[in-house]
Amino acid sequence: MSASATMTPPLIAVHSEVLGAMSVAADQVVELPEGLYGFPTATRFALLPTPREGLYWLQSLDHTALVFLLVDPFPFFANYHVELGEADKARLATTTAEDILVLAIVTMPTAPGGRPSANLHAPLMFNVRAGQGHQSIRPDNAFGIREEFDL
């Protein structure tokens, strides 16, 4: 085994006003060149799995107070599917399904006993191998921006 194969990725110090100070591996950093809708200046993020499978934190590296909870929508929404258009493939620079991770932004309920919702109309798509991503509005999608589910 070569020395480069056994090396761990370098760590980056990240401060989050929500999650606290942490060190993340460089391979957990993703770039969304166009930012997110409503947050065009936030282009660099750490994509961090949570202890619960299928949930992730997306912590902005540009704005310490900006963090999103993301969910893998497919286990929660049986009829949900995403077909990559040519623009998606170009932005992600891959057509290999194993490289692509599709996640939805979660909005937590404001009222006690309410259910969280997921934005299935504009999912986030990541090329996890290249650390690139983008938010894709799905005009052909029957799902909305606040699809309730049980977390």
Please tell me about this protein's structure.
The chain is mostly beta strands and 151 residues long. The chain has one domain (27-148): BH3618-like, CATH 2.30.290.10. It is built from two helices and eleven strands. The strands form two sheets. Strands 3, 4, 5, 6, 7, 8, 9, 10 and 11 form a nine-stranded antiparallel β-sheet that branches. Strands 1-2 form a two-stranded antiparallel ribbon. A hairpin with a 6-residue loop joins strand 5 (55-60) and strand 6 (67-71). The relative contact order is 0.17.
Question: What would the CATH topology be?
Answer: BH3618-like
**H-E order:** HEEEEEEHEEEEE
CATH class: Mainly Beta
Uncertain segments of ≥5 residues (pLDDT<50)? Answer: none
- The total number of structural domains is 1
Q: Helicity range of the residues?
A: under 10%
Q: Any idea what the CATH architecture is? A: Roll
The percentage of residues in β strands lies in 25-35%
Number of strands: 11
Biggest pleated sheet: 9 strands, antiparallel
Gyration radius (Cα, Å) is 16 Å
> What number is the mean pLDDT?
91
User: What is the straight-line distance between the termini?
Assistant: 42 Å
Number of helices: 2
